């Protein structure tokens, strides 16, 4: 397998990571996950833009132009012969003697790799269960930071309780999932948390909002409460790997009739049309 390591594509066994890499010691870095459909990077430009924005927000400078970076990711996918899968890529502030403050004259460390992944078609057809969990993360969730402890703890709790995902809430307000964005549909209107510092503005979310606009579906980007979430006609989550994923139960409450809703199905199909694959059932 080929790995992207600081601007070069190398064999996996040639990858060297320092014990003092700040990603390893502080989670001092950011990352992206980009979906590959039939050998093509889906919404690559948007993911690459967000990678540069996240890096800038924590004052890391990506040492290549976006075009060069895009080409590296494309070459990596090609060299690993990835048909359907994903690219994971991260940048850390670099390796230096352990001190909280930024090191001086240290180069950032970029590592990327690919993986084959199937689309979660069965879950997409049946829908998944999610559970409400308090959002105890920091206040810069707009940054796709390597610090994922809040997300990891929430996902693990959901998983141990038999749920596919955590519906995070700050007090009464539903924010997003542990690794996804959340949406409710009531009386034909789609509700989702606005893209503030409290959520990651998902690339899948942006595609979905574009589809809604195209279809003339009204979207209200305003916070909704836990109680409102339980009373939605339909509910779904989205992410690069789960696409438009119906949520049919939240914390033991059935949403709608417990099967994926009509509008959710329509959005799934429109999303699929965008990735130029066949239609689900
Ligand atoms: N919110 C969080 C916290 C995430 O980790 C992710 C990524 O998986 C998302 C939302 C969805 O973002 P995207 O659609 O860009 O994958």
TrEMBL record:
Reaction catalysis annotation: D-alanine + 2-oxoglutarate = D-glutamate + pyruvate
EC number(s) given by UniProt: 2.6.1.21
Keywords, comma-separated and alphabetical: Aminotransferase, Pyridoxal phosphate, Transferase
The keyword Zinc is assigned to this record: no
InterPro entries per record: Aminotrans_IV, Aminotrans_IV_CS, Aminotransferase-like, BCAT-like_C, BCAT-like_N, Class-IV_PLP-Dep_Aminotrnsfr, D_amino_transT
Required co-factors: pyridoxal 5'-phosphate
Domain of life: Bacteria
Keyword Secreted found: no
GO molecular function list: D-alanine-2-oxoglutarate aminotransferase activity
Family: Belongs to the class-IV pyridoxal-phosphate-dependent aminotransferase family.
Record's function text: Acts on the D-isomers of alanine, leucine, aspartate, glutamate, aminobutyrate, norvaline and asparagine. The enzyme transfers an amino group from a substrate D-amino acid to the pyridoxal phosphate cofactor to form pyridoxamine and an alpha-keto acid in the first half-reaction.
Assembly and oligomerization: Homodimer.
Protein name per UniProt: D-alanine aminotransferase
This protein's encoding gene: dat
